[in-house]
Amino acid sequence: MTLKPETRKEIVAAYKRGVRVIEICKVFDIKPRMVYALIQQERETGAIMPKARVRGRKPKITREQIEQLRQLILLNPEITLKEMKETLNLPISISSISLLVNNFLGFSFQEKTIRKRTRMPGGN
User: Rounded distance, CA 57 to CA 4, Å?
Assistant: First the structure.
């Protein structure tokens, strides 16, 4: 159950005033473990807001690196994937760079040059 920030503050304040957990549970219609979890979270982190839920794998390349890659391609359309990796010291494979350049940045390879796509991928 997700509680509003004001409700969380009221629960912690009531606990600190000495109100019994069972009474807090009745007033706010929550289970005791929620009260104890809030108190423990405040004790450990100093905050009572819900914890951020991070899902999935963390990206190996930052938005700044992606922007640097885009600028590098615009400045040097003849650059190879290997040169991109070496120039920017990217921590991803050459095939991942290829996918990034094609699908995310919208450039296409034609012989030795890289050009900006005029159509969206998968479109006719």
Answer: 29
